[in-house]
């Protein structure tokens, strides 16, 4: 016994089947038109195949760029989430060796480096 209402999966399958049959009908129409224009039947099938391969190439090209874009977006999100400085990490922004080298340079200002151990550091 068949259910009174079709499920969404069955409805989608029927819709996709109608679309597929429509595409095949249009392809047959184009092939018949090409044959009527004087192209051999094998040539019409070849042209049809080339059009399909070109369309597949365009779809794959666009998909590869979208995947690359998504990979860059995921990397940016990961970097922002895991690589961002926390308030605790601000003081350890520079290694001690780099900090000691910076302190010896003339005109050193400890404020941009959050060098709170320096005597000239002012907390804003």
H and E order: HHH
The largest pleated sheet is described as: none
Q: How much helix is in the residues? A: 55-70%
Choose one word for the global shape.
elongated
Mean pLDDT: 85
Percentage of residues in strands:
under 5%
The N- to C-terminal Cα distance equals: 79 Å
Structural class: mainly alpha
How many strand units?
Answer: 0
Q: How many alpha or pi helices?
A: 3
- Rounded to an integer, what's the Rg over CA atoms? 33 Å
In summary, what is this structure?
By secondary structure, this protein is an all-alpha fold.
Key words describing this protein structure:
single chain, 124 residues, 3 helices, elongated
Describe the structure.
By secondary structure, the chain is mainly α. The chain is elongated. The longest helix is centred in the middle third of the chain and has 43 residues, at 41-83. It starts with 7 loop residues before the first helix and ends in a 21-residue tail after the last helix. It has helices at 8-36, 41-83, 96-103. It contains 3 helices and no strands.
Secondary structure blueprint with pairings:
Elements: H1 8-36, H2 41-83, H3 96-103
């Amino acid at each position: 016994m068949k259910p009174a209402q079709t499920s969404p999966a069955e409805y989608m399958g029927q819709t996709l089947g109608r679309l597929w049959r429509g595409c095949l009908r249009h392809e047959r129409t184009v092939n018949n038109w090409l044959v009527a224009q004087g192209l051999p039947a094998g040539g019409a099938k070849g042209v049809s195949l080339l059009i399909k391969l070109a369309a597949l190439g365009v779809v794959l090209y666009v998909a590869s760029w979208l995947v690359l874009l998504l990979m860059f977006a995921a990397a940016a999100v990961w970097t922002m989430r895991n690589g961002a400085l926390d308030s605790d990490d601000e003081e350890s922004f520079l290694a001690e060796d780099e900090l000691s080298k910076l302190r010896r340079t003339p005109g050193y200002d400890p404020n941009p480096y959050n060098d709170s151990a320096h005597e000239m550091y002012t907390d804003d």
